[in-house]
Amino acid sequence: MTDQNEPVIEGNMDEPVIEPKVEEPSPYAEAHLGKTIDVTVKGKKHKESDKAFFPILLILIGSILLIQNLGIGLKQFNWWALFIFLPVAGALSSAWKDFLKSRRLDGKVRSSLGSALVVGTVAVLLLTGADWGHWWPVMLIAAGLSSILGGIGYWDASEHRNLAAWSGFNTWAGAGVLLLGVGFLAKFLPIPSLTGYIEGWRWWAAPILLAAFGAFVTATVVCWRNDWKMDWTTWGFVTIGVVVAAVGFFALTGLSWNLLAPVALIGVGLVVLSRILIKK
User: Fold this and answer.
1) What is the value of pTM for the model shown?
2) What pLDDT digit, counting tens, does each position of 66-112 carry?
3) CA nearest 236: which of 221, 220, 219?
4) What are the extents of the domains in the chain?
5) DSSP per residue over 169-229, as a string?
């Protein structure tokens, strides 16, 4: 006989009790978390280094002023030119941040480095009180190196056809500007080991013709990537090549520069006419 006051237990007494499953953190999650923390720590350290640049700059300026006022030396140093290094530091900092994100020398990194190179060259020349009458070709060298730096990157031609074309042309144009700066620097300093190569002929025409040759090469590459079809990009580089080649030809032959404009117009007209005829 069953006691009516005895509690009734529902369910099977032999049924196992299921304990809640506690998931262990995956190694991937821990690695990802560790990577995030590492990047955060690096970012904080980088920001602290950026903040430290300005007081270091003030210390350098104060040291230069102290040495100048004591008459010890550094009379040719223009301390105010140190402030021009502020944008240089900003460009280098931006390049380093972009490099940490992409882990490669992409367009942003190379653009920042090129800007830092050009502005830094100006800052050094002003800081040292260099004679611009002799040292101005250094600016051409810096601009040429910056252009080459912008052209050495890789662009997927299938996705960025125009950027890939201009990147290749920048390398040729930068090489021409670089050689032009080296030639003028060798002439105005002068540099005896290089002066012998530029005396006796119109050497400055060679870098200009090099850039024109690069434009024609770029046009050929673009046409080849387009299954040998002449599009606007191809014709654009052909036009650039014709104009720059005309400038180089006048520089080489010593013809009157008054004839350059009409000759360039005739050349551009022939290019446009050729495109119309080929399209038909």
Assistant:
1) 0.73
2) 776 777 766 677 878 888 888 888 898 888 998 888 888 777 888 88
3) 219
4) 29-130, 131-280
5) HHHHHHHHHHHHHHHHHHHHTT-HHHHHHHTTS-TTHHHHHHHHHHHHHHHHHHHHHTTS-
